[in-house]
Design a protein that fits this description.
Order of helices and strands: HEHEHEEH
Structural class: alpha+beta
CATH superfamily of the domain at 44-127: Glutaredoxin
Distance between the termini: 78 Å
Radius of gyration: 22 Å
Helix content: 40-55%
Strand content: 15-25%
Largest sheet: 4 strands, mixed
Number of strands: 4
CATH topology of the domain at 44-127: Glutaredoxin
CATH architecture of the domain at 44-127: 3-Layer(aba) Sandwich
Length: 131
Amino acid sequence: MKIFSIKTMIKTIVFSGCFLLASIAGSFTAEAEVPQAPVPGKVTMVDIGAKECIPCKMMIPIMEELEKEYKDRAAIVFIDVWVNRGAGQKYGIKLIPTQIFYDAQGKEISRHEGFLEKEAIIAELTKLGVK
């Protein structure tokens, strides 16, 4: 049987306490507010990803362009699952980026996993009646 010194036991207790405090603090950290999606009464395209994943980064300029081009005609929404950790489960995400298209009544019509080119997004929005 190994006998621990008082010094070793104190170090263990202090380390365990710090680990416990860090764990508790992490559980109380608030997530960023998740944007509402789908947007009531609007055709909505939601891109669920993370600002740091490579294909997600490729989507950023496309999303910014679409947001401007479709400002009053459709909702273009981005949700970062690394910031909003519960969003992945809420939307049933298996891979990022994932794009989800909703009709104006809020019904999911289609989804795509991976990078999606602007033309394909425009085609999907057009199918949903957005001009």
